[in-house]
Design a protein that fits this description.
Tumour Suppressor Smad4, six-stranded antiparallel β-sheet
Length: 309
């Protein structure tokens, strides 16, 4: 593969974000400790991350040139097919990067395996360079990930690598009309989550945990199960649906495939939103008159695996 240079994508540590907010490390420490927090944990996380980043840069510089960009610049960065992307951070950073990288190979590195589960992070700073070399010699294997898509009736659309949220921007109930299969009903709920296979271990899993936890109070020996979604499927779940004279609870979950879709019509005069991958700043307004069609997008992401051709 003809690669000009690699792009390292990173995010600020929690400590760096605190220092930006309070101007100095000392003031950040005073704030956290005054509230009873463990400031040493912020420092340790910061030190481990930057040690991992330094190791990654040192090893990468011996193989290919690179540039570093911060997470908040990803939406405006112009990615090229002659680049490879190396994400170092949490799983959410992989999701955010994949939406804008245009399908070029992504090598995801876990900087702190004692802290992060790393469901989407198959590499660490010790073995990632092998994946880089495999990409450079076109010997890499990849995992193709499908995006979810929300398309509004005015032509706007939003992609999601992990999940879409459809609802109200605050903690008030969302009001909407939902259509799935041959059924249509008006609902009031805390909103909908639409998850891809990549996102099934994230926000969606917390919905399952809540459901099993509540049901377990009334049914003994109930064994929690993890959501399972096939590669070409999406799973939607309605959060806390409320039944009333006007609102129903017949449609609470379902599978979306290539052959079907989910339609949601907003009944909210204001504060309705659709956002993706937990980034509330990346959203579509979803107010009265807006109709969203939710389905599988044509775009895909390539996540490099630790296998070789």
């Amino acid at each position: 593969m003809n690669v000009d240079y690699a792009i390292i994508v990173k995010n600020k540590t929690r400590l760096e974000a605190l220092i930006e907010r309070f101007n100095t490390k000392a003031q950040a420490k005073f704030y956290i400790e005054r509230l009873g927090g463990n400031f040493e944990d912020y420092e340790q996380e910061h030190e481990i991350f930057h040690a991992s980043l330094s190791t990654l840069q040192t090893r990468l510089s011996k193989v290919v040139k690179y540039k570093i960009i911060e997470r908040n610049f990803i939406p405006s960065f112009i990615f090229s097919p002659k680049q490879i992307v190396i994400v170092i951070g949490q799983d959410g950073l992989v999701a955010n990067t994949a939406k804008y990288s245009g399908g070029i190979p992504i090598i995801a590195v876990n900087p702190d395996e004692e802290r992060y589960d790393g469901v989407l992070l198959p590499f660490n700073t010790g073995n990632f360079i092998g994946a880089v070399e495999n990409v450079l010699t076109d010997k890499f294997q990849w995992r193709t990930m499908r995006f979810a898509e929300a398309r509004l009736n005015d032509g706007q659309r939003l992609l999601a690598f992990n999940d879409l949220f459809i609802g109200a921007s605050s903690h008030v109930s969302a009001r909407y009309k939902i259509s799935y299969g041959k059924a249509t009903e008006e609902q009031s709920s805390s909103g909908l989550i639409v998850s891809t296979p990549a996102g099934s271990t994230g926000w969606l899993s917390s919905v399952f945990n809540m459901a099993y936890g509540v049901a377990g109070l009334f049914e003994k020996n109930l064994q929690p199960k993890k959501p399972r979604i096939k590669d070409n499927e999406l799973l939607f779940a309605v959060r806390e649906p409320f039944q009333s004279i006007r609102t129903q609870i017949g449609i609470t979950a379902g599978i979306i495939k290539q052959t079907n879709s989910l339609t949601v019509e907003s009944l909210m005069p204001g504060s309705g939103v659709i956002f993706s991958d937990g980034i509330e700043a990346d959203f579509l307004k979803f107010n009265s008159g807006a109709i969203a069609t939710i389905g599988l997008a044509s775009e895909t992401a390539q996540l490099v695996t630790n296998e070789v051709k």
